[in-house]
Amino acid sequence: MPAMLIAPTPSPFYPEPRRWTAVETVYRLPDGRGGAPEGPAPKVFPGTERLDWNWALHWARAFGGLNIRWSLRSDLGPQAYTLAIDSDGIEVGAADGSGAWFAAITLGQWVAFALRGQALQGLQLEDGPAVLRRGYMLDISRDRVPTRAALARRIDSIARLKGNHVELYTEHTFAYAGHSAVHAGYSPMTVEDVRWLQNLATSRGIELIPNQNTFGHMHRWLRCRPYRHLAEQPEGDFHAFDYEREPFSLCPTDPGSLALVRDLFGQLLPLFEGPFVQGGLDETFDVGRGRSREAAERDGIGTLYGTYLKSVAALAREHGKRLAYWADIVLEHPEVLDRLPPDGVAVLWGYEADHPLAEQAQTLHERGVEFWIAAGTSAWQSLTGRWSNAQANIASAVQAALRFGASGLVLTDWGDYGHWQPYRLSDPAILTFFARAWNPDRPLEADAAHFLRALGAWCWGDSQAKLAGILWDTVRATDRLQDGARNGTGPFYALRYPPHGPNSKESWTARAPRFDARGAQAYRERLAQLRMRLQRARGVWRADFEELDAILRAADWATAVAQQRLEGTALSNALVREGRAVMAEWARVWSHSARPGGLWDARRKWQHALSPAEWSQGEPSEFVRPKHERAPSLGDRDSKP
């Protein structure tokens, strides 16, 4: 194929292809309705039998006898493809089945843009990804467990961005047999759910990866009486993921810890077809401070951690899986880097714009450790998102991955402390991540008009530039706060760490040191403008409008609470009543995309923002937890919530 130039016309593509140009020739699509497209026969691309080509080429159902010629190209790299459209028809060349699949997705974007009647504008295109593994991880353990419909939408949306890796982060929200004390009441994923999702992901060219924490972040298990004896600190401690004192990590020197992991892996891993399992093993801040203290003092924390990590990797290997694990602890104890499981993959993570991803990636690269890099959507702990941080963090992750040879990139979508933000709030970051992971030289957000066009088309199936603009402006609104907060925003932290909280060591103002009245007012003015724009733009996307409106209202209320906390004055009756109304509306829209089980726990954290005395002000509230939803005390958590 001759060298091509980037077309000067507005681009219809997301991600942006490496090289493409529109050509003068036009392909006249055949007349006729209801005809099946001539798809890429599995004989041409072995291993593609389970891909849903009708989904990828859905537009082609309107035409009969569509002429698409497919060919295997050994001269192209993995997942690469070429696409040519002229008066004779459509020709696709690909290195493998993945390349052919991505060509079909690109072709659909071109048809949506360049089809006029039966005439399709000609095209010459050559493309391939910068990073071969491009993944997305959704947190389903911080109360918000998605419905099947929400999961299907997310799988489809990742596939349309040419993603090929999806994980669901799990602590306690898989329905393990024999462990109902942990997951009852949380609407967990079932065996049937996973089988359904595995089939859907495979049909979209996506590798579904099991993700089950196996060391730290086990507090949802360890606060239940049948498991507390396995805890590093059975008496518990304060941590960042709840306001109550709880045990957090499994004790690495207790044989029962690995016995539990063996059971979990034995139930979960056979449901997944891919070669990896993400075992977590991150943020084990309490290990060495409790029951394993003697071993830690004798052998060192690094050795203690490394031994446990290798044991978990061995359990994964029993099921033919390679263990992926978060890299924070091994980077804190570099003496372990030479003794890691040889088939493991370290997942380097850091979610702030200035996190030293390149420096840490260089360390792993120089020690010969295979690694992926994880960036973040920055939607969690923010109410309305942190776009500037997300954009910079994603760009840094992609640059570090390319420079130091990461074998994968993963975008994490966390839900710390109740997953208050709706799923839609992460979409601008998801779009820019997959665009950069595919083609870092052509970031979509560099051209605002192009980005909004792509965001509207990707989210809602047509241009929807007005709604896309509201969503993008929502995630950019926190730039007006300028509150100096990291990993969240001042208004969120004012709710998370109220003055009546049990952990008096935490101060929300320390987490947002520059929060002031001026920034708060600018932010609230922006929120009010966005709500007005939403009202004027209302259309068929009712659930999206309602979820965005609810979180905008919640952010305004949280900012008003932060202002009052900063002034040291008690909250007014009017502000408390507004808080009740905000929380009730937020709880109502939860059902648009999430299962009911985790709502009680997320509401408990909402209500914690106000003291019992503040709740007693004003009119009685309907926002009171039912008795059967009350969180039992640490000593009583031996059954469902």
Description:
By secondary structure, the chain is of the alpha/beta class. It has 22 helices and 14 strands. It has an eight-stranded parallel beta sheet with strand order 9-8-7-14-13-12-11-10. Helix 12 runs parallel beside helix 13 and helix 18 (517-537) packs antiparallel against helix 19 (542-567). Mean pLDDT is 91; it is low at 1-6 and 620-641.
Percent helix, as a range, is: 25-40%
What proportion strand? 5-15%
Gross morphology is globular
**Radius of gyration, CA atoms, in whole angstroms:** 25 Å
User: Main sheet, how many strands, which sense, barrel?
Assistant: 8 strands, parallel
Alpha-beta content class = alpha/beta
The beta-strand count equals 14
Count the helices. How many?
A: 22
Contiguous runs where pLDDT drops below 50 for at least 5 residues: 1-6, 620-641
End-to-end distance: 63 Å
Strand order of the largest sheet: 9-8-7-14-13-12-11-10
Mean pLDDT: 91
Features:
disordered C terminus; 641 residues; alpha/beta; six-stranded mixed sheet
Secondary-structure map:
Blueprint: E1 19-28, H1 53-56, E2 68-72, E3 81-86, E4 89-94, H2 97-114, E5 115-116, E6 119-127, E7 134-139, H3 148-160, E8 165-170, H4 180-183, H5 191-203, E9 207-212, H6 219-222, H7 255-268, E10 276-278, H8 293-299, H9 301-317, E11 322-326, H10 328-332, E12 345-349, H11 357-366, E13 371-376, H12 387-404, E14 408-413, H13 427-438, H14 448-460, H15 465-476, H16 490-496, H17 508-511, H18 517-537, H19 542-567, H20 573-589, H21 599-608, H22 612-615
Helix pairs in contact: 3-5, 7-9, 8-9, 11-12, 12-13, 14-15, 15-18, 16-19, 18-19, 19-20
